[in-house]
Amino acid sequence: MWQPISNAQLPAKILTLLTHSDTVIFYCRYAPDWPVEYLSDNFEVFGYTPAAFYESRLSYRDLVHPEDLDKLENAVEQAVESGEAYVTRQIRLKKADQHYAWVDMRITFERDDEDRVTHLLGKMVDITAQIQDRERLEVFARVVEQTGDLVKITDRAGRLVFVNQALQDKTGYSEEEMLGRKPSMLKSELQDPKKAKELWETILEGKVYHNRIINRCKDGRTYHEETTISPVCNAEGEIEYFVSTGKDVSEQVKMQQQLNELAMKDALTHLYNRRHLSMVLEAEIKRADRYGTQFGLVMFDVDHFKEINDTFGHDVGDDVLCRMADAVREEVRESDQLGRWGGEEFLLIALGLNKARTDLLAEKIRKLIADIHFPVAGRVTVSIGATGYHPNEGEMMLLKRADQALYLAKKKGRNRVESL
Fold this sequence. Notes:
Blueprint: H1 12-19, E1 23-29, E2 36-39, H2 50-54, H3 60-63, H4 66-82, E3 86-94, E4 100-111, E5 117-126, H5 128-146, E6 150-155, E7 160-163, H6 165-171, H7 175-178, H8 193-204, E8 209-216, E9 222-233, E10 239-248, H9 250-264, H10 274-291, E11 295-302, H11 305-312, H12 314-331, E12 337-342, E13 345-351, H13 355-370, E14 373-374, E15 378-379, E16 382-388, H14 394-411, E17 417-419
Parallel strand pairs: 16-17
Antiparallel strand pairs: 1-2, 1-5, 3-4, 4-5, 6-7, 6-10, 8-9, 9-10, 11-13, 11-16, 12-13, 14-15
Helix pairs in contact: 11-12
């Protein structure tokens, strides 16, 4: 009967090294069930004693996962027949608690003088943690690739080391075009430079950054991204990577802009409404009082507008207001704020103009409207009151003076400009 190799036959230092090592050593006869002649004591980490194998109460067949058993035996058999020196496999080994551990196994073949394999000398290491980490990474990779979120990972130097398919599809850039470059390649000139500075200050402090940014695609189109950037640290607490996840919120931004526009536009003429004009007035008054800037105010309304409605109907009256609004909007500068103040009354905030130039603009508007031939109403005129802002007078006094100038224009016969 064969006898296992005793620990006494091994040098003490080697025995100590094996006992405290993560590597399990085994030595088996190459015979049915691979009878174990030596098994290092550290195999007890799996819940079994070497004695159970020495006494044939257990064999490798009892522990190797059924799906891995045939593969292992076939690999050994083929290696033996082909004369290979060793074989390696990753297999699952059942522990005493009935859970499986992944082990990395390497078996070396011991041959006699006739080159027949007599023994298997093997080592195995528990790699369950590595396998689990790899599986988690594979799951993460699948999720990242399949998600609609825009995902990119940069190193500490700010260079892209990973971009997912959703980001490639959105931007039109390929993985090869982006890896190794900085995310700033996507930055739009519409992006606020202060946001970029704030972003880096935040993430370099190890904090999570969240904001809405504007990026540009390869073809020049821009999109709004709701982005979250998180630092990833190593075991020493040093930042190694930054993971950015984002959502394309361009449609939401567009919808919000439309809602905002509806909130500040007059439904009939599509000019600014009174609420928006009041907000602009408040801001421009503060600017003028602080920096000494100037602006003018032109207030005008349609002469005899009630008669137009009574004679031709309200739809014709609405058409007059709309055509008039379009004509004046085309005439004034983009910086000027033109809106419907109420009813048939309009207000123009002429930014950067002094009183004299505001008066000239008012007269230009009067002539423009007087020369329009409206399809049904024919010729229509307006009365205009013009004025300029006086330092530190406030909104109420400014509007009152413009209104007084408009009243004076009507009193003096209409179709004229009065300035106060």
